[in-house]
Amino acid sequence: MKHNIPLKSLYSFIAVAETGSMVKAADSIHVSHSAISQAIKSLEQQLEVKLFDRVGRQVYLNDAGKLYYQRVSPAVQAIISASEEVKNKDKDHHSISLNMVNSLALHWWIPRVDKLQNCYAELDIRLSNFVGDVDLERRNIDMAIFQGDPQNWQKYHCEKLADDELVLVCSPSLLKSETTNNINELLNRFPAIQVLNARRNNNWQIWAEHNHIACPKAQKNRSFETTAQALQAVTRELGLLVTHKQFVLEKLEYGELVQLGSAVIHPQQSFFYACKADKLKHTSIQQLIAWLKNEFVAS
Q: How far is it, in rounded angstroms, from Cα 19 to Cα 55?
């Protein structure tokens, strides 16, 4: 090997090895597909050995690739960790990168920013909105708030913040001409607004089964990909929506929406925070955790 291996080639190699896809790898490290492809090609040329077997759009580590990954991955992670330690050494840890899904950021976090600043004026929280089981180290994230199962976050310190409650809501204007608040009658009268993405598409089913009600069918122009779109639709009187109570607390408080019936605890997920155990020693992280616990309990 005549030249040193560029670090960016190693990042690309590890990303492809862990995702099994050039496209997913490119997304994970925020580069183009062509950049990933060229980096892998260049790396294999420098090593003078193929590292992957390619089957359609999927790529799999071959024996040489598996051996290389086992040796290289810990070394690259050590470089990342050492760089972060040097960068943060002797600095105040008041700036925190915090990940949460966009719906929670829009409808829970942002309405509470002033309260956080009043409690801890020195904290500076930088939000990200990666979806799913996020690799905090790879994304350079200090902490995440997630809805889900902590079993998927076993390498991090996790604590429950609150149950995930599902509520049926609608615009108060929708009920002005109604003489009843009977949920069955309202469901027969008004369409159900659906959220299609995989994290939300069973909300109606869970709520309906708990209330011993037939799950309403999707109707034309009432199905949306995101919670933000669905909340806009329900606010505009397009129908009824089952959603997560944490997402509509402010709208309920100010009368923009009304809750029908009782909340139903989601049996498959709750709200948790997750972070690396060594982050817990930082005062800023301790302050944020204490504030989050208090706010979720108050909610």
A: 14
- pLDDT one-digit tens code per residue, 123-177: 999 999 998 888 999 889 999 999 999 998 999 999 999 999 999 999 999 988 7
Three-state secondary structure call for residue 47: helix
pTM of the model: 0.67
**pLDDT for 92 beyond 60:** no
- Give the E-state strand segments of the chain in sequence order: 52-55, 58-61, 95-99, 124-128, 143-148, 157-170, 192-195, 223-224, 240-244, 258-275
Domains of the chain: 7-88 (1.10.10.10), 93-299 (3.40.190.290)
Dihedral pair phi/psi, residue 221, rounded to 5°: 60, 20
Question: Crossing angle of helices 63-88/7-19, nearest 10°?
Answer: 120
Tell me the mean pLDDT in the region 25-38: 88
pLDDT in tens, 175-196: 887 777 789 899 999 999 999 9
From 294, 291, 244, select the one nearest 266 (Cα to Cα). Answer: 244
Parallel/antiparallel/unpaired status of strands 192-195 and 157-170: unpaired
Strand order in the sheet with 240-244: 124-128, 95-99, 143-148, 258-275, 157-170, 240-244, 192-195, 223-224
Helix, strand or coil, per DSSP, at residue 266? strand
Hunting for tokens 């019936």 — which residue is that?
A: 261
Instruction: Tell me which residue of 289, 173, 299 sits closest to 244, measured CA to CA.
Output: 299
